[in-house]
Amino acid sequence: MHQHSLFKSLLSRKVAFGATLGGAVLFMIIGVVLWGGFNTVMEATNTMEFCISCHEMEENVYAEFKGTAHDGNRSGVGASCPDCHVPRPWVHKIVRKIKASNEIWHKIMGTVDTPEKFEAHRLTMARRVWQAMKETDSRECRNCHDWDTMNPEKQKPRARNQHVFAMEKGNTCIDCHKGIAHKPVHKEISEEELEEWAKPVEAYKFEIPESFKAGLASAEAAEAEAEKARQEEAQKERERRKAQALAAQKKIDAAVARAIAAVKSNQTDDTTVPAVATRGFGVDWSGSPERLITLFYPGQTSMEWTLVGKYHGGARPFRAGDRCTVCHDKEAADMGEKMVTGQKAEPTPPVGKRGSIPVTVQAAHDDENLYLRFQWEDTEHVPVPFVDGGKMDPDNQVKLALMLATDEVEYASQAGCWGTCHEDLRTMPGHPEDAAAAGLNLDLSNGVTKYIKESRTKVEEKGRRGKKLGGWDKLKDDAAIQAERDAHKYMDLVRWNSNGKTENGYVLEQRIMDDGSKIDAQGWLEAGLWTVEVKRPLKSTGTGNISLEPGTVYNFGFAIHDDYTDARFHHVSLGYKLALDNDQAELNAVKAKVTAAVAAATPQKATASAGDEVDSGVDWSKTGERQITLFYPGQTSMEWTLVGKYHGGARPFRAGDRCTVCHDKETADMGEKMVTGQKAEPTPPEGKRAAIPVTVQATHDGENLYLRFQWEGTEHVPVPFVDGGKMDPDNQVKLAFMLATDEVEYASQAGCWGTCHEDLRTMPGHPEDPAASGLSLDFSQGVTKYIKESRTKVEEKGRRGKKLGGWDKLKDNAALQAELDAHKTMDLIRISSGNGSVENGYVLEQRIMTGGQALQGSITEEAGYWTATFKRKLKSELSDDVNIEKGTVYNFGFAIHDDYTDSRFHHVSLGYKLGLDNPDAEINAVAQ
User: Fold this and answer.
1) Cα angle at 748 between 832 and 895, to 5 degrees?
2) Which DSSP letter does residue 456 get?
3) Measured between alpha carbons, how far is residue 220 from residues 153, 157, 285 in Å?
4) What sections of 202-297 are H helices per DSSP?
C-alpha cells in the first residue's frame, strides 16, 4: 500500500510549468505515437510506389525512367524517385514535402492529366528541378556519387576529365547531367539559357581528392601501358603483313622470271615483259616511331556542333581550352560506332559501313623533305543505296587527305582540321538550297566546300535565337582574305587519290585543291593492307603551304574516304601535334635514312602458273577475317565442364548454352588462370604463354574449301620434365582442326571439346594399364581422344565417387560401325611443321590419324609469324569425312601445339560455326 501511494505521489508531482510527472509521461506517450504516425506517413509518401500512384507520373516520367542506368545498373543497384527528388536531411525533407503539396492542387486541377498537357508543362517542371539541384550543389546526386569516392580508373577518359574540370571550375552534377533519367528536354532550350544554367559557382569549387589524383595517375599509367602494347601489336601485325607481301612478291618474281624465260625461248606468245615500278620514297621506316590513330565516322558533326552544349557534352571544356583528344583519344572507335549506327548525329546511317579505321602513322624527314606513311586495313565493298552502282566515287576506291596548320588558325590547336567542317557545307544539314544565287566570289559549282572562320566576318556557332549554324554567306572582302592568306592563316591540304592523282591545296575561304605547288604521294594495296606515303618539302614559299621548322609544333589531322565514298561519308581523325625531332609531339618526325626508291618488278600480265601451291588462285585480301584466341586448357575436360563444383557454367551448358556465350571474350583470361596454376592445372608449365590470338580466314570455290590460320610465334621455353626440354623435338608447331555436324553430341555447343576426357593420356583419370583391359583399341600411347557416341556410358558427373570418363565402356564393333556409317565422327586434320606432313583422320572410338581423303596443306614461318593453309575437298565418299554443303552450318574447333609441345600441353579454341556464303556463320567461307 505504501509503494502504491509513493507511485501515485510521483505521478502527481509537478515538474515544469505546473505539469505533473504523470501528465508529462502521458504527453510523451502521445507524442511518440503521433510522431510515429507522422513518420510512417512521411515514409509512405517517400516510396517509388507512392510517387507513381498517379497516372501522370507513371505514364510519363516513370515510363522514361525504366531501362535507364538509374532504374537498375549491371550490378542490380537502382534508384527510386525519392533518392533523386527528396532530400535526406530532415529539415530539407519537410520543406520539400510542403512544396510538394502544390502538386496536389495541380492534380485536382488536372494541369498535366494528359500526355499533351504534360509535354506542354514539361520544360517548366524540368527548370524547377534544375534550379533546386543547382542551388544545393546537386545534393541528392551526392547521396550516391561523391568526389571523394569516385574512382577515375573505372571512368572513361572523357568522364574523368570532365570531373576534374568541374572540381576546378566549380560546376555541379546537374550542369552536365540533365536528361539522364528522363526525356532530354534541355535540348529544346537555347544555347544561351543552357550556358546560364551551367555557369560555375565559386562556392562549389572542390580540391581534387588525393584518392582521385592517385586513381588518375594509375589510369593514365594503365592507358599508357595499353597504348604501348597496342603499338607493339600493330608493329607485329605490320611485320606479318610484310611477310605476306614478301611471300607474294616472291611468287610474282618467280612467275615473272618464268615468263621472261618463256619469252626468250619463244615458248609463249602471250606474255608481256615486266615493267619496273617503284614503291615508296626510299625511307628507312624502321627508326620512325609509330602512332596508332583511330579514325572514326563523324556523321553530321561539325565545328558548330561541337560548340553547342545540347549536342556535345564537352562544349564547355572545349571553349575553356581543352583539346578534343583530352576526352576522346581513347574512345574514337566507340564514337564512330554510335554515329555509323544512327545512335547519334546521323539521321541516315550508311548500312554496313565500318565505324572506325585504326591507322598506323609514321613521320620522318631528311634535310629537305617531310615524309609521312599511313597504313590501314582494307574493307569489303558495301554499296550505298542512294547512288547508281553503289559507288559514290567509282574512280577512287580510296582517298587520303591531310591538313597542317599553325596555332594562328582558330581551333586548329584543339581540333586539328575539324575547324574546316561546318553545318552549312554540302551534304550537311544546313547547306543552302541555292548557294550560287548569293553572288559570292566563290566556286559553288559543287556547293559550299570547306572554309575556316578567319575567312568570314561572322560564323554562327551556337544558334542563338534560332539562327542557322555556320557562316557560308558572311564572306570577307578580297583584301581581308588576302591579308589572312599572307599571314599564313589557312589549313595546308594534301590529298592522294587511288587513281594516282595527287593534289596540293589549302582551305581558307573555300577548299582549293590545286595551288600550283608540286607534291609527291604514292599508295598501294597489298595483302589486304593499304599503304600511302607522302613526300613534302619542309620549306615552301608557295601560296597555301606551311613551312616546317625544328622547334615548332604543328597541328595535324587527316581523313580517309574508303570504299569509293565521297563528301562527308569519310572517316576522320581528331587533332594531333606534329613536330621534327620532338619526342613530346604525338607524331614525331625523326631524321631518317633516305635512299633511292627500291625498284620492284611488276608484271603487266600474269601468265605463269603458281604450280601446286595450296592456295594458288586464292585472293586472301577478299576474305573476311575472324580473330580467335586459343587458350591453355590445363586439365579441363568435357566431364570437367559438366561438373558444377569445377565449372560455374555447367548448368547453363547442360541447358543448351554454347561455350562462346560466356567465354568468347575471356579466353585469354581463362588461359592465364590455368597457365599460372590458379585453376585446373596442378603443374603449370613455367613460362608458357596463356593464349594465342589467331587470325582465321576461309573461302571456297566450286570444289574446295580453303582455310588459313596465322599467328605469332613464341620463344622456346624448355619444359623441365623432358630431356632436352622439347616434348616433340621434330615438330616446333602442329595445328589440328576438327569438323562435325550437329549429330555429334556437344559438337554444336563446344566444337571439338567433346573429344577430350578426364581419362585421356596425361589427364588425371588416365588408367594405369589400359592395355590390360583387352579392348580392341591401340593403347600404345595410352587412351587417346574419343567421343561419347563410341561408348555405352560416359561418367560425366562422378556420381557416388565414380571416376569421370568412359574409356573402358567401349561399344561393340557393329555398334561402332553403325555410328561411323551415320557420320557421327569428328573429322580431324593435322599439319606438322617438321616435315610438312598433313594427316586426315577422325575421332570416334579413338583418334585415327589416317583414312581420310587426300588433301593439301602448307605451314611456314616468316618474320616471326606462322601461316598454315589447307585445301580440302568439299565432297567426299568416305564415311569418316564431313561433306560440306551450302545451307548447312558445321561445328569447328582447332588447336595449336607450339614450342615443340605434345599431348594436352597445347592451346585450344572454343567451338565456332563454319558455313559457306553464310554471313551468320562465325567463320564464313565466301566463294571466290
Assistant:
1) 20
2) B
3) 8, 9, 28
4) 210-264
